[in-house]
Amino acid sequence: MNGFISLQGKIHKPLFSSVINNLDSIQLCVSRRELTIISSLLKSKFKSKYPFMASQASLLLQKQLKDLCKNPVDGFSAGLVDENNIFEWSVTIIGPPDTLYEGGFFNAIMSFPSNYPNSPPSVKFTSEIWHPNVYTDGRVCISILHPPGEDPNGYELASERWTPVHTVESIVLSIISMLSSPNDESPANVEAAKEWRDRRDDFKKKVSRCVRKSQEML
């Protein structure tokens, strides 16, 4: 199935001149305290009108969203949960072909920190999914989503963990790979990992139920 992008909000293109022209008229005063108040009002007005300009992280996320529009990833769609919040995306990951998850439409929330890309986002499935690398509450546990640096538990190489060069696209590709090839060595869902190793038929039945349920939610 071809990839698609669904943008639920418009990316605003801020114009500084329009911000100034639209500001409520303010009587300038000479005292330092009053100038400080005026400065705060200006900043507040600007941020409320153009929330995407709050940080460098927001600009980068705007760019990555536009890039995904131009070059969509197969099996993935994304939009904003709230058009005024670039830091929270609503995404759908389509089960990869020739896997147990084929045909499923799994919804998730991708939440980005204010210091992105220095720190990784978090991904949490809102659709029911049975997988060794997904906690029972839906949180995805894969190396690329773990903070930069050495793994304190010694399971992962630093090169496998998050680095600022990663993008939303690389995260999505890693999740799709996770669905294709579960890692049962350091599982988030221990019971799912045990079934994957020892009771594969039971594992398949639970995944099939999740796939059917995701289709019914469309």
Automatic annotation (TrEMBL):
Gene3D superfamilies for the chain: Ubiquitin Conjugating Enzyme (3.10.110.10)
Keywords tagged on the record: ATP-binding, Nucleotide-binding, Transferase, Ubl conjugation pathway
Residue span, UBC core domain: 56-216
Class of enzymatic activity (EC top level): transferase
Matching PROSITE patterns: UBC_1 (PS00183), UBC_2 (PS50127)
Keyword Coiled coil listed: no
InterPro entries assigned to the protein according to its UniProt record, in alphabetical order: Ub_conjugating_enzyme (IPR050113), UBC (IPR000608), UBQ-conjugating_AS (IPR023313), UBQ-conjugating_enzyme/RWD (IPR016135)
E.C. numbers: 2.3.2.23
GO molecular function list: ATP binding; ubiquitin conjugating enzyme activity
Active site annotation, chain numbering: 141
Purpose of the protein: Accepts the ubiquitin from the E1 complex and catalyzes its covalent attachment to other proteins. Involved in the formation of multiubiquitin chains. Signal the protein for selective degradation.
Family, as annotated: Belongs to the ubiquitin-conjugating enzyme family.
Name the UniProt record assigns to this protein: E2 ubiquitin-conjugating enzyme
Species of the source: Canavalia gladiata (Sword bean)
